[in-house]
């Protein structure tokens, strides 16, 4: 199922909450809510914002890490990865 950046996690949906949150965060990344190499909200803030437990939020963020959309820095947080060629269909290098 596709999720929008402004969707909420629905407890009675067929998809597990962590998958819903991962989809919502993907949509927010695609919309540009957070710039590359800048942090996304902390686990505790995402827990509060979406009404989810910390393990659920961690599992959603782990999906984004596995997809190489974000990366974690121990004791610092989770950051947006640099876009790679093909993420937006364009080459980031300037034209020669």
TrEMBL record:
Domain HTH gntR-type: 15-83
Keyword Transcription regulation: yes
Coiled-coil zones: none
Tree of life domain: Bacteria
InterPro entries: Bact_HTH_transcr_reg, Tscrpt_reg_HTH_GntR, WH-like_DNA-bd_sf, WH_DNA-bd_sf
UniProt-listed Pfam families: GntR
Protein name as catalogued: Winged helix-turn-helix domain-containing protein
Species whose genome carries this gene: Streptomyces evansiae
Lineage of source species: Bacteria, Bacillati, Actinomycetota, Actinomycetes, Kitasatosporales
